[in-house]
Amino acid sequence: MTMQHPFTVDAARALGGPDWLRDRRVAAAEGLADVEWPTAEEEIWRYSRIDELELARFRPMSAEELGAPGVDSVPGGGPVAAEVGERAGLVVVRDGRVVHHELDPALADRGVVVGGLATLDHASVAGTLGATSDASPDAFTLLHDAFLAGGAYVHVPKGVVVDAPIVVLHWSDGDGLASFPHTLVVAEETSQVSVLERFGSPDVEHLVDAVVELIVRDGANVRYQAVQEYGPRTWSVALQRAHLGRDAVLRSSAVALGGAYARLRSEARLEAPGAESEQVAVYYGDQDQMLDFRTLQDHVAPRTHSNLLFKGAVEDRARSVYSGLVHIHPEAQKSTATQSNRNLVLTEGAGAESIPNLEIEADDVRCSHASAVGPIDEDQRYYLATRGVPPEEAERLIVLGFFEDVFERLPVAALVGPLRRAVHDKLGHLHPGDGRG
Fold first, then answer.
1. Residue 405 φ then ψ, to 5°
2. pTM for this prediction
3. Which of 76, 338, 96, 87 is nearest to 195 (CA)?
4. Which residues contact 395 (CB under 8 A, 6 or more apart)?
5. Torsion angle of C-alpha atoms 317, 322, 323, 328, degrees rounded to 10
6. What is the DSSP string of 145-198?
7. In this predicted model, what pLDDT tens digit does every residue of 85-111 receive, in sequence order?
8. In whole angstroms, how far apart are CA 166 and each of 101, 191, 220?
9. How far is CA 116 from the centre of its chain?
């Protein structure tokens, strides 16, 4: 399918920035002329709302709207960052360009870098920028590359341990506009770091095309948490992809609460023996939202291990989709993988789809997958009723309990309380007595 849109080569070239970034953008923009835009007839877009996306309704921002790269123009973080508590660093990204950054001076002295991609020279990002996303391309990653104006950069040198989280705050604004947030995290050998990202937007019609790259070198340990709280008219298409080296460990999590349509591809490629990945998610849709998840656990090397647990709930007319693949390559003998997706459908009119898949090309592995879609268990409801718990409160307790094992795995403990409250607020719409229209 071809599509007319304002995302042209000239618009990509006009964004400015360093020569290497402009050249990367222009090359991608030239490729847009031949791209096949997805439709719901394709298996990987099945059940999605992609046929409703009119790209021509959005336009890229100009260099003037984005502002000059490397110029801190906002204060740091506000109450959103304060919820995290102690932090080692902070990056604030507005419409894809870094507008504020800070880092503990002691970590800077040890070689940790936190800042904006558009302020770096090509040598600093050669071999890392695009290393994961280029290995999993689609029309939207190409569009992203064509209008990549900057983004967050986190680099942790070999052997350095960053105890407190590094916080990255993304804010996307502007009615009828598109933004292209990018985050590149490089954890060198035997380093340790936690990265928390929060993505938000106001109540405007906006398109967010985001990419998160996580490069976890041999023996490194990365904890990554993304919280998506877009406004009710934002459309989001995002890729979060990690490449793991020998004995590397990644604990990644996603919390999805906002957006009109929000699609996340969460992918982990285990490239060397001993690599270990955990992917967990909590999502809750209400009103007319659609939350769409596609996951990949890609075992390339022997003795690699992955575990995935995605849990969601939908109410009103909201829908969710989960489609996951565990791929065990022929060389990945003695690997283990588990994949589980559970969904609660809380009201008539809501719906959830769950499609787990295994592709196993080795014969000495242990793999399992499971999925479930259904309403609240009546036995649980009855149990609480017999102990005097009102029906409305019983439903809240059951739903919060349903999510608890994922909450316990979130890497930034200080955020668990605020996220519980956010889910509780959505639950408040379940009953007419609570003000639901």
1. -65, -25
2. 0.94
3. 87
4. 346, 376, 381, 427, 430, 431
5. 180
6. HHT----EEEEE-TT-B--SPEEEEEE---TTEEE--EEEEEE-TT-EEEEEEE
7. 789 999 999 999 999 999 999 999 999
8. 11, 14, 16
9. 19
